[in-house]
């Protein structure tokens, strides 16, 4: 039985298997293409981890092997998969080989791509070493020249079975129950190396300024080192110390190195030029060494991008501009023709922080909303000890601070992102938008809300003639209270230095630039203080020509970012109706056939009292169906034998027919009607009760005056009921024709006065 199948079957309920550790060794490569005009390539290998959501993480980068096409690195790596990944686990590896320019290596790579390959780890067996010798593909055909380079790498994975994590929303709500913030920062500015020379004569006079970025967006200076004369590798060894309150949470430490040309000027307005800047995240998890509180010695590269809060520099004189141009020209010539390793500027610092964890303010309102009905309730909410209004960055709702009785409502708590900060490391594999198969990229960072709102965060500088730019710029922004941020979008453009852009045509600069791609990351469930470090795929570009490459590997454009957020609980006051007892629940189901504007009535569906004459007719029909009608014929004086149906006169004018003139059909006495063959059903039957409802009025209209007065009600009832019963009995003998069912208006006839009176009156046939 296969080990992987046995392991899958052995998983207990509610658990899943994941790769938690990857150990490997990048051995060597052979047959690489040569991309240098002089000498051979200087290859180095980048190994990235592929997650199940197609995002990538940096695992390892080798050193650059100088002047060779068959490098032997023999470098090992050991990568621990963060448990915060959860179900979005590691599924594979991506190895790419680049040619180092000026001996500089980076995870973003460069334009000299020497090939890449993918390694699938989904079916790997835990603890078993796998030796791969893979073909490097994706190389432009004009550079490959028919070669098929290969890479040798050894990989061993280790898997574990752990319980499935809780839903993301439950984890998010649990993370905002406590607030951890930095109370004290202790550090030391040690030294800097390989700074840029900003002076035409001599060397720069560097000075380091340390600032801290607070949660409310304030940039506060906490230390300024002394100026060291004519030195590009200064060593300060100066310490700094700062304390903060609960409402002044520090998030970032910013180190600016300036060339101080006038040290005699006051410190408030130094006449300096930026020689570089480094930004640090004041996070104890990454700054403290193994949690013991010992100072950590860190070094990082500097960038030349000043922060947005810096004041505009005064306009330089003609001599200053000429000096700056001469310095730039000297650096370019030096980097282009000197065959020596170009060092990148770096800064070394020591940082130690002291943190404190406390309950999150207003967290009690997230668990249970509080109903406010009067002034006493409002005061009780504002004085609630577990709410900690004094430590909250949000003020109480205005409805609770009004004089008099507050509006009736409920006070609840809702978590919200209040601060976003991160770093744009760089991009890789961007499309070429210019004729020289290169681009001038820059990136725009924006925050998106749930209601399609957009908030500008940052815009990087333009990197000239690059497809793999390295920005290394930090951005941060306090989020407005009503802005519910749930996604960060990174848009990359190619800067076109057109005549209209230089002169200023009044058109949006982004509309003149070419779009290179866009990437976005969802931060709806990113916890407070957690750092997201990923390479996100970039897509959506329609510029650049598709370069024909060797098959087997496709290089995807990506952008490398680091992102963190800070969440707090904000109070939300919802107004309630004025009278809760009068609230009618909203109807969710409508009764079928319910009339709206037009009323339709069906009399046959109404429940009305049955008249006496109709009840008598029903009794007669019931007696006929049970055979009791013939047996009791001699006992009832109102039952007569059925007569022959009169012939109908086909005239349009209604007439009164005398049924007594029709000769009765001879029938033997005691005839049982139930023994006859059933009568064929007609299409429709007359409604019996329709006659009796109009009987009194109709009888008065049709009967002439007899003598001095009218017939009594008893006589009219006896006559009309007898006629109705006889007509009903006739329907049992003969099948009625359609023309006999036509309602005819009965008019009084002159001959009816000459007819002899009958004890049962005249019968009207309709």
Query: How many E-type strands?
Result: 25
Largest sheet, strands/sense/barrel? 5 strands, antiparallel
Secondary structural class: alpha+beta
Principal-axes shape call: extended
What's the N-to-C terminus distance?
94 Å
Q: From the alpha carbons, calculate the radius of gyration and give it in angstroms.
A: 48 Å
Q: Please give the share of residues in helix.
A: 10-25%
Describe what you observe in this structure:
By secondary structure, the chain is of the alpha+beta class. 15% of the residues lie in helices and 33% in strands. Strands 17, 18, 21, 24 and 25 form a five-stranded antiparallel beta sheet that branches. Strands 4-1-8-7 form a four-stranded antiparallel beta sheet, with no helix packed on it. A four-stranded antiparallel beta sheet has the order 3-2-5-6, with no helix packed on it. A hairpin with a 4-residue loop joins strand 2 (43-51) and strand 3. The longest helix has 21 residues, at 713-733. The C terminus is likely disordered.
